[in-house]
């Protein structure tokens, strides 16, 4: 039985590759349906390829659960590990940032970051952090409409735990939108926030996140706060 499995996945752009990388690694693993069972401990290497970048990003994994399904199929749970060679990942990030700087549309290049966040308030929806930069963050709201308290000018705080300690990014909401999804009438509410003046240790942790050198423990999660709740929690 082969105990080393290598899978290749292709993406059109480095942006889409890194977006999927952060989403998948943030979940801590992946579930795969296969035609044959594999023993626990089977090692996986996921090769993530993107157009224009010669070397793939490699994500390591290990089978931690096997569940029989109907029609002689199996559901494998693969837990992700972290590869030691960052060369390809750094090249992907550099390609993303260089392209955005060349476009000149934004002051700070953005990192695609698929990170779920919650608010402590009761009955609040789930938020999805879509991208982040040195200057701010963009989020989607998993609800038909924006919460009433999410308005331009509202104080905002994003918190997450990194290996080096908590990352607390404070600022204010600067735009809101409700844009229909492509080829659908479903509306996706969203908003963007700019960061205020961050303390040196928070700036350092933000830079480590933007380079994907320091990541939250899986599964990734974050907290968002607004208004006075954000102000009282700000560092």
Automatic annotation (TrEMBL):
<dbReference type="GO" id="GO:0035438">
    <property type="term" value="F:cyclic-di-GMP binding"/>
</dbReference>
<dbReference type="Pfam" id="PF07238">
    <property type="entry name" value="PilZ"/>
</dbReference>
<feature type="domain" description="PilZ">
    <location>
        <begin position="106"/>
        <end position="210"/>
    </location>
</feature>
<feature type="domain" description="PilZ">
    <location>
        <begin position="4"/>
        <end position="85"/>
    </location>
</feature>
<dbReference type="InterPro" id="IPR009875">
    <property type="entry name" value="PilZ_domain"/>
</dbReference>
<protein>
    <submittedName>
        <fullName>Pilus assembly protein PilZ</fullName>
    </submittedName>
</protein>
